[in-house]
Vanomycin resistance protein VanB (Micromonospora andamanensis), 604 residues
Amino acid sequence: MTLYGEERPPPADERPTVQVTAVSWPIEEPVRPAPTPPDGDRPRSRRFRLLLASGVATAVLGSVGAVAVWAYAGDVPRGTSVLGTELGGRSRTDAARELRQHLDRRATELQAPIQVRVGERTAEINPAEVGLTVDVDATVAAAAATNAHAVDRLVGSREIEPVVSVDVPKLEAALKKLVGDQGRKMTMPAITFSGTKPKVRYPKPALTIDPEHSADAVKQGWLSGQPVTVPLVENHPATTAEEVDRLVAELAEPAVAAPVKLTTERGSVTIPPTAIAKGLRFKADKSGKLTPSVDVKKLRSALGDKLGTVEVAPKDATMTISGGKPKVVDGRAGKQVDTSNLGADLLTVLPRGEDRTISAELKPVEPKLTAAKLRDLGIKEKVSSFTTNFTGGLSSPRSQNIVTIANDVKGTVVLPGETFSLNGHTGERGYAQGYRDAPVILDGKLVPGVGGGTSQFTTTLFNASYYAGLEDVEHKPHSYYFSRYPAVIESTIFWPNLDFKFRNNTDYGVLIDTSYTGSSVTVSMWSTKIWDSVKTEYGPRRNITSPKTVYLEPGPTCIPASGSQGFTQDAFRVIKKDGKVVKREKFSWTYSAEPRFICAKKPA
């Protein structure tokens, strides 16, 4: 084997360069007769030549090995640099340290604001505010992963691009602020219905920045120190105007051209085009892709009572007071149309002109409040009760209104954490619901109005919840003071603007029980008692005003009044537990002086 080395001029960085050539072993040479040595010298001469050849080979191989060790030293291949800093021949730890030191030396330069131009506007962006940093560990890992062959490791030179990180959402927000009114939002495609007529909104592209490409441009400009130009680009919605027209022609128009028949085991229901139009939705996602779907809740609402012919509504378990104790009355399960596949089935038949029939199963539906759940609510004792009196017996319209609303609320169970709304529970209180005309306060005077007297029940209910220690959410006292109510601690009601609400802020259920006599109405709260006592302490009346006399046009709609003083007063709800005051809540109200209304012409 022949090994030879050729010495070349050293490069600028004075690294040694060695060229190694290998040939086959052994080399066949012509056989020449050798001179015959003296008898004693022949073996020695042969051994000498072998030893000499072996020594030369060992020396050369040792030299080559040393060069190889030098070339492959460290994790990062020699000749590798980042941002002009040599990292080759170092371990990852040392390379990372060297790169961080280099970045520290360039800190002032790298922290300088970047000049960015978007459209016709230019601004400076602080690198730190958008999270621009060199990821040192990732950069060193990229440098170490460089695929360098043996010769490249000896003589090669390579520059590795640093791995730069940026907070894309923060950068995007800064750039969009710079865009301002130069850009425009994407106009999303839409298909809606006016009655049963489809209406379209065609898509339009947004004029904005591309977050990913903008981030790349800013990262490059940051390292180079050069101004950055971020172009405004059009971002088109995924659904085109042609596709909107196709959806209208192939789905929206035929969908409302005829009814759909829904069959169940209990009979069938016709879904009219008006209900289909209210349930059929075309929703665009963030990319502007328009997808049809059926909003089953809106469809059910549009069908109104039609589903009642095939469905059986579940009935909640109830609770009554019998023999002075709460008693649970079982509810029952119901059956409702299984809507899990209803939307998909409808979308299948809506494009058709014929065979527009779908079927659905009726699935069992448990009541919201089962007997077992009701028994676990801890409703076991009366925790408060309040009574107010009225005149005129039960035959008067006002008394009948009180009885009607009392019966409506009777037996209501308020779950833990739930808020009870009196308007929400009764709905509108009109003639259809059994209410009659009776005096109500309107614009500062008593006038006939449907539902008069319900405010007295509201005051009674408010006080029962008040003395049960339940949380007051919404109430409003009357404008004028009436002696039949406790001052300040009372409430009026009027549909739909004035409501009374309380929240069950306990861990137990609350049962509202009501009763009445010919001259009074009582509301009681049943639950688990958690307070020792709930009482009211009053402050003195102040800012007292006197009523004035007002003459009204006499007639059937004129209701006289004797008038009352106006005043301001504070009331404090004091709640005790374990003999200590745990809550002291202040309620304040100012009553106006009720005029003395006289149904007659004013004297001359």
In short: Residues 1-31, 59-71 have pLDDT under 50 and may be disordered. Residues 378-599 form one domain. DSSP finds 15 helices and 36 strands in the chain.
